[in-house]
Design brief:
The complex is a heterodimer of chains A (about 325) and B (about 290). Chain A has about 325 residues and is α+β, with helices and mostly antiparallel strands. Chain A has three domains: about 100 residues, Ubiquitin-like (UB roll) (Roll); about 120 residues, Alpha-helical ferredoxin (Fumarate Reductase Iron-sulfur Protein, Chain B, domain 2), CATH 1.10.1060.10; about 80 residues, no CATH class. Chain A is built from 14 helices and seven strands. Chain A has a five-stranded mixed β-sheet. The longest helix of chain A is centred in the last third of the chain and has 16 residues. Chain A starts with 5 loop residues before the first strand and ends in a 7-residue tail after the last helix. By secondary structure, chain B is an alpha/beta fold. Chain B is about 50% helix and about 10% strand. Chain B is built from 15 helices and eight strands. Chain B has a four-stranded parallel β-sheet with strand order 2-1-3-4. In chain B, strands 6-5-7-8 form a four-stranded parallel β-sheet, sandwiched between helices. The radius of gyration of chain B is 19 Å and the shape is globular. Chain B starts with a strand and ends in a 9-residue tail after the last helix. The mean pLDDT of chain B is about 95. The chains are: A alpha+beta (about 325), B alpha/beta (about 290). At the A-B interface, helix 6, helix 9, helix 10, helix 11 and helix 12 of A face helix 1, helix 3, helix 4, helix 6 and helix 8 of B. The structure holds iron/sulfur cluster (SF4) (2 copies) and FE2/S2 (inorganic) cluster (FES). The site of one iron/sulfur cluster has 16 residues of chain A, from helix 5 and helix 7.
Chain lengths: ~325, ~290
Amino acid sequence: MADATVSVPLDVYRYQPAVDHEPRYQRYTLDLAPHTPVLTALLKVRAELDPTLALRYSCRSAICGSCAMQINAKSRLACETPVGPEVASHGRIVVEPMRNQGVVRDLVVDQTPFWRQYARIEPHLKLDPAQPMPADRPNPMTPEEVERFHDTPRCIACAACFSACPAVEADPAFPGPMALAKLYRFVVDPRDHGRQDRLVRIQTEGLWLCLRCHLCTDSCPKNVRPSERIRDLKEMAIRVQGPTERGSRHAVGFKENIRTGGTLHELKLVRQTFGLAGTAGQVGQGLRIWRKKPEIVKRPRPIEGREELESIYAALDEEDGAR
Amino acid sequence: MKLAYYPGCVAQESGRELDLATRWVCRALDIELVEFPSFSCCGSGFVDEANEVLNVAINVRNLAIAERAGLDLLTICSTCQGMLTLANRRYSDPNVRARVDRALAPLGIAYRGTVQVKHLLRVLVEDVGIPELRAKVRRPLAGVRVGAFYGCHLLRPSDETGGEPGEEPKSFEALLEALGADPVYYRGRVMCCGFPIQFVQPEAASRIAGTQIAAAKDHGADAMATPCPLCHISLDAYQNRAERAVGRSLDMPVFHLPQVVGLALGATASELGLSRHLVSTDPVLAKLAPGARA
Ligand code: SF4
Ligand code: SF4
Ligand code: FES
């Protein structure tokens, strides 16, 4: 039984930096079954309409990770994104190269920034020299140990998350979601000897720039959930080193801020995060806001039942080791 | 309709105009707000970073307060919405639940997991409904081009929020249309406002905010509107920094969600606390039928 086809208008980003003045969008219209993957549509364009279209792909089965691109502004694998729903909600399909990586040609990007960040987290096991991996027998893990990886080992390095990440866009020093999810994977690996060192280092190497916007998690084809693993790294980093960076001071300061009154004391938080000297640098902005919103300097009214909160903190905040 | 009102910290302090506007709109739509002075802060994502289980516990305490009263919870902040929803989900994990219960049981707090956490946006679109809202409009926002700005935690992770697709929501634009405004579609509407790192790396945070405001402006927006008071801080109170970071002037009025609703339903500027904004909303008010500026 043949599927009814839909008319699929594809607006494809075309750009050859050495030749073209600026990028343009080229319209190709195809009749396709709704379940056809965007990649198949693009390959059809190349085979039948325009052999000059450049794109990267290999497995066509969501395994190799080479076909990530922006599809109607979402960073996705083209080989597992069907055309039907895209046309239904947008009336067309805008296909663009991934973000945060320079364009080589059309849909092909230069992945150097992505791989450089990956290399920086040293994505390999660091064994304890005193206890080398046994050569003569397997080195088994318990099911509980395996569970702690979550889905991080499933990463196919497609860089969809890197493309979607606003922290990468705003600050090239940010390692990006995939590198941090990979770092997590080594940090919880019971065979890895570098845990402590890795957690201490990452605090100053971008961990606290993550905005927890969850765009990476929504983009990831393999449920790696980088934003959630980054959260885990943050808590682990605080537990091994304490709040040494502005980001961790802010998180811990916030937690302490509401411990006693139950509600946020905005001015106090600025002090907790920036320290006295740093707070001075915020005074100008504070005054600007204060003129319109004088409450920023007021101490908020404590909640009813704040001793309950104190007791919850006492029970859970000192608890450790579980993670 | 009767809901447990969870205003969150900002709406009770520097973002009081949001509380004001929420109360005005709920009165106009017969939504009864039940208040609980025992609600604590949701942790704003920061407590979650420092201690995940503690964050679940303080929010389960909040949820249990609403459950005892037999009410669902109304939030007016994308981050509160996200954190309370997260607590509902994480609490269903037996390991987390056991640890949380150990802390709550001595206080006589038990939670059965029955409370739905609903953001005002969802209540307006789903419970009040677009036709009903449309019927109540007394001052259509005709000719005003508004860029919705959702706030991350309302949308994502989309398999956890139980709402709209995390990168392609539609409800806010549908609401704006019902109010007579022209919604503006731009990439930034589902992006981050930069707030979470406003204290960590102000420069990068401001660049992120500036990028989204500039995108709205370049798509012709006269104003932006957000269901999140933290986004509002980034987009309005820190807009001067955003301008510096992206090297251009933006002059973008930013409304809280209930303020745009209130304007269309006939509230005055002072009833909505518009004078408390850092960036003046006057250019928008000037486009509307008389009476708005009172
Ligand atoms: S959650 Fe963090 S890592 Fe993921 S996309 Fe947002 S800023 Fe990037
Ligand atoms: S984490 Fe997910 S989105 Fe990112 S590179 Fe790995 S598979 Fe791709
Ligand atoms: S072609 Fe291999 S993942 Fe899409």
